[in-house]
Please model this.
Amino acid sequence: METVTNLERARILTEALPYIQRYNGKIVVVKYGGNAMISEELRQQVAEDIVLLNAVGVKVVLVHGGGPEINELLRRLGKRSEFVNGLRVTDAETMEAVEMTLAGKVNKNLVTLLNVRGWRAVGLSGMDGGLIQARQKSPVLGYVGSVTGIDARPVTDLLALGYIPVISTIGCGPDGQLYNINGDTAAAHIAGALGAERLFMMTDVPGVLRDKDDASTLIRHLTVSEAVALFEQNVIAGGMIPKVECCIEAIQYGVKRVVILDGRVPHSILAEMLTDAGAGTMVEGDENNG
Model:
């Protein structure tokens, strides 16, 4: 049943216009994974959002993970996953599964999803063109990597040609060794190297909550110093700690603003970028708040 009138459509478009003008020609990085990637309906909606943003002149870079898909492949191989502080312990066999899943199946599925919606997308991994340079993070973690450098030229070249870069987070060491890179960390480094206007961190919670059990306590805006204070007050705790830490790192690397979005909400990217109400929690530097 049709529920949106022509007047309401016009109001929505009018509200979006100044935001479209503001972001025209700007780079936006979307870190995509988790529940938004598992649900087919949400996958379709994220692809629609990204194609729409490109159509109105926003340059979108998609950085993706694929933890559930890696878990499934390892399960089929009869291999158990072990995690230390939220990071997957990655031996040689696991690294091979990570490469197959992220740079292969997941990356190419996302590229196809965007292409069939009428836009040109190209898949990259951190191995391509020296995009993500890495070293071993800890011997305990095996082939888990820390980012040592980003060469953004493969991405900027694709953006200049009108493509949507779709990046899987596998890094490469100077000796050619491949490393499993945390998706949020990789996205923060990539967004910083690109001087992105915004980085969207899609997750499975509404954003930063004052009360973790009450979605109505969503904090819509934080400066870096306010975020640090919330760490000290244990308001930001558990799994939200590394998310907010990545937000702060991204700002330190040069990103203007970082938004933690609920990937379970349909069209949350558009709601954040193109409406007055916004969505999620925005984190920005103290110098921007005043």
